[in-house]
Design brief:
The protein has about 170 residues and is an alpha+beta fold. It has 5 helices and 9 strands; from the N terminus they run E-H-E-E-H-E-H-E-E-E-E-H-E-H.
Length: about 170
């Protein structure tokens, strides 16, 4: 069985920036990359690919730059990795509030001392460190959370998805 991989595009179609129609992206993946087993989810840069090999994130980044003149950072996670993210969720009480539980996906494992100065709890919002991801638990809505400032201060590159999207991507990569 072919490995299915979720490719998460950072900052696509958010606030009118980095506009990238998913239909055009799907067409480009087929024509330019030869990927035929693909699906997109929502309009915010979630792609699932099956059967493709190599550095999928790099291939997609280069193809988007070439075709659309956009430099979009892409994060790749296999279905197995996404299922592990779900299984290891340290905030099980938040799954009933999927808009208040997010996962920030990283390119590499975070440094062990990443939050040494700032801490993991901020006004009721919490961060938990995973293998190549961070769990973000919000007391209310993420937009007003102090975690945004904390994450910016780390200078790590990431793209975040809410729990509903994480579950759907795991389903699509199964």
């Amino acid at each position: 069985m072919a490995t299915r991989t979720a490719l998460l595009l950072k900052g696509v179609n958010v606030g009118g920036n980095n506009k990238l129609p998913m239909a055009a992206l799907t067409e480009m993946m087929a024509k330019d990359l030869g990927w035929t087993d693909t699906a997109t989810y929502l309009h915010s840069g979630n792609v699932v690919v099956g059967g493709a090999t190599g550095d999928l994130a790099g291939q997609l980044n280069e193809a988007i730059a070439s075709r659309f003149a956009l430099n979009i950072e892409v994060f790749a996670f296999t279905g197995k990795e996404l299922r592990a993210v779900i299984a290891d969720n340290p905030f099980p009480g938040k799954v009933d509030e999927p808009k208040n539980l997010h996962v920030a996906f990283l390119r590499t494992a975070p440094a062990k001392d990443l939050f040494a100065k700032s801490g993991l709890v901020h006004d009721g919002d919490e961060i938990a460190v995973g293998t190549r991801h961070l769990y973000l638990s919000y007391a209310a809505i993420s937009r007003d959370s102090p975690l945004a400032k904390v994450l910016r201060s780390t200078k790590i590159s990431f793209t975040a998805r809410n729990w509903t999207t994480v579950l759907k991507l795991a389903e699509l990569t199964a």
